[in-house]
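User: Design a sequence. Structure:
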């Protein structure tokens, strides 16, 4: 299974991450405006957040 990674150089980290609400199983969380954290115990690598983030900060690799 591919692993979801976040490119911190692409994430501006200055806003509430909209992708947190897009994840169907709540695998993303955010502290303040920091880059979202990925709960790898529940992430199913569906790619919804990858396609949703306009900054293309998420990648499945
Ligand atoms: S790949 Fe899918 S399950 Fe994993 S964090 Fe993104 S939206 Fe959630």
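Assistant: Done.
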């Amino acid at each position: 299974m591919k692993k979801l990674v976040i490119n911190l150089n692409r994430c501006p980290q200055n806003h509430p991450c909209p992708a947190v609400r897009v994840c169907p199983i709540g695998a993303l969380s955010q502290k303040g405006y920091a880059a979202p954290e990925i709960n790898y115990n529940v992430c199913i690598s569906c790619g919804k957040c990858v396609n949703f983030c306009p900054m293309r900060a998420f990648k499945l690799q």
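The CA atoms of residues 28 and 38 lie 5 Å apart. Residues 1-56 form a domain with the Alpha-Beta Plaits fold (CATH 3.30.70.20).
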